[in-house]
Specification:
By secondary structure, the chain is an alpha/beta fold. The chain has helices spanning 2-57, 60-74, 79-95, 106-110, 113-121, 128-139, 152-160, 175-188, 206-209, 250-253, 265-280, 282-314, 324-360, 362-377, 389-401, 412-432, 437-455, 464-472, 493-505, 512-518, 520-528, and strands at residues 143-147, 167-169, 192-194, 213-216, 219-224, 227-230, 237-241, 256-260.
């Protein structure tokens, strides 16, 4: 009897074990199906990333070399020179059998799309030049000095760090206030902007600029003034200057990363479009901003979830089917992906309508943004002629608002023509108040050239060698053909030399010298006419 009871108990225990194994297998099967379905959603994203990484693998060494060079040396230069240098470096690398991506840029190599979108929401201009400069600032080991005449970098930095108790100091502040602010910020790790910087710096800042940081035990210290103070690794220091052409000593240049943050055509075009849409269609303007913010938040959530899933898969237990946290995360990712797709579909139609409105005002924004660079050129005439972007923006906003009562909303073409003509007149009138009388005609001529270049953009714009010849004159010194009016005729040798050079250099004037000599009597009448 005891033997039968023991066998029964053993059989029941085995049954329980098998039943538990069966339940465990069923649970693992269900979890495996859930993992397969969950990872299937990520599979497409990973396939795209894998294909992209395979393509970039051959070029990664060359791309990193070029990007490192841009960060180290080219931050202070304009976009055109940066592009020329990166292309020459790419050609040089090819001689050593090192491949690089075509038209490689700092943004494509080191840029984080989610972070860049957040910067743009915070006020970073949306052109590629400003984006590259911001990435250089983000990666630079040295403190950054921004050449920022239009205060664009200053505005972006203030928006970026406004939640982190940002401190702003100026060279004109009391030295004790500057010293106290910097000391507290270095201790507590709060960011500081030194704005309106001059070409020289207070000797107090030398150890800070040179990052003379020492580690003692587990703490960092920096010499500041006459004493060493605790240095918080979270501390950030930025310098901005309004000077468009500063001359810093080599000692300063090697201590900081200098960045050119001057306004560009593309960045200014986007800003002018935003202003006119904000005034003309305020509701749709706000909706567009909300959509941009929502899209940026969704991209951030997706990126965080993908990173979390990859981390969990890489660091999962020996049996991935035992990892219930991974299943929960995958379920969460799936739900969020569906929600994000629905949100994007809803925003797509709204964005199309809003972009159509923006496209309507592109001719206005193009004209306005081009004319801003006439103002920046005036500094070459007289260093006193310097105008802020805020001054320019206020004139533009005034011109746009003045249309009320002149044309109805439905008269869109008339309103656009009015915006262009009214802004041009207001800009001319306001700027002429600050010009010497002798420079007003030159200002009008520069505006005229910009407008002509825009009007002729379909054919390549103005022929600037011809314009340069018109302004600078001829450089020939020897006559290749005799003066058709003789040595003491009404036409001077200097004028004839200009005609000869013009006929030789420019195809549109080819043969003009021969035509002029053949019709010398007709040209003499024009020359002597009081009203030719």
């Amino acid at each position: 009897m005891k033997k039968l009871v023991d066998e029964l108990e053993a059989t029941q225990a085995e049954e329980t074990r098998l039943r538990n194994e069966k339940d465990d297998c069923e649970r693992k099967v269900d979890l495996a199906k859930a993992l397969i379905n969950g990872l299937a959603n990520e599979r497409e994203n990973w396939k795209v990333d894998l294909a992209k990484n395979k393509e970039n693998r051959e070029n990664i060494v060359g791309d990193i070399i070029i990007s490192s060079g841009v960060i180290a040396y080219l931050g202070v230069f304009i976009k055109q020179y940066r592009d020329e240098c990166t292309q020459s470096w790419a050609d040089m690398l090819m001689k050593f059998q090192i491949k690089s991506t075509k038209n490689v840029s700092v943004e494509t190599v080191l840029g984080d799309a989610v972070k860049i979108r957040q910067w743009q929401i915070q006020g970073l201009p949306q052109d590629s030049f400003s984006t590259d400069s911001a990435i250089i600032a983000d990666y630079s080991e040295r403190w950054c000095l921004f050449i920022d005449p239009q205060m664009q970098a200053n505005l972006w930095l203030k928006n970026r760090y406004k939640e982190e108790q940002l401190k702003v100091i100026k060279p004109t502040n009391d030295p004790n206030f500057v010293s106290r602010t910097l000391e507290n910020s270095i201790n507590f790790g709060t960011p500081v902007i030194l704005e309106d910087a001059n070409e020289t710096f207070d000797p107090l800042l030398d150890p800070l600029l040179a990052k003379q940081i020492e580690k003692k035990g587990s703490e960092y210290f920096i010499k500041f003034g006459d004493q060493g103070i605790s240095f918080n690794p979270d501390f950030k220091f930025y310098i901005t200057t309004k000077m468009s052409r500063p001359h810093y000593s080599p000692e300063v240049c090697v201590k900081v990363t200098m960045l050119n943050f001057m306004a560009t055509q593309d960045g200014l075009l986007d800003q002018m479009l935003s202003i006119i849409v904000r005034i003309e269609e305020p509701v749709k303007y706000e909706r567009r901003n909300q959509n941009i913010q929502t899209k940026a938040d969704n991209q951030k959530k997706q990126a965080e979830l993908q990173d979390k899933i990859l981390n969990m898969v890489a660091n999962s237990k020996d049996d991935i089917l035992e990892d219930r946290d991974l299943k929960v995360t995958l379920d969460e990712s799936k739900i969020q992906s569906v929600q994000i797709e629905q949100t994007l579909k809803e925003m797509e139609n709204q964005n199309k309508a809003i972009e159509q409105i923006r496209d309507q005002f592109v001719p206005v924004a193009t004209r306005v943004s081009r004319l801003f660079f006439v103002l920046t050129d005036l500094i070459n005439v007289d260093p006193m002629y310097q105008y802020s972007l805020e001054f320019f923006r206020l004139i533009y906003e005034g011109a746009v608002r003045s249309v009320e009562g002149v044309f109805e909303k439905s008269q869109k073409n008339d309103r656009k023509a009015y915006f262009i003509s009214e802004f041009t007149w207001r800009l001319y009138k306001n700027v002429c108040r600050s010009l010497f009388e002798k420079d007003k005609l030159l200002f009008s001529f520069l505006i005229c050239l910009k407008i002509m270049d825009e009007v002729q953009k379909e054919t390549g714009g103005l022929d600037f060698p011809v314009v340069r010849f018109l302004m600078a004159g001829a450089t020939k010194v020897e006559l290749t053909k005799p003066n058709p009016t003789g040595e003491s005729g009404w036409l001077t040798n200097k004028a004839w030399l200009a005609m000869l050079e013009m006929s030789e250099k420019f195809k549109q004037f080819k043969g003009f010298d021969d035509s002029f000599a053949a019709n010398i009597d007709a040209w003499e009448k024009i020359y002597n006419s009081p009203n030719p």
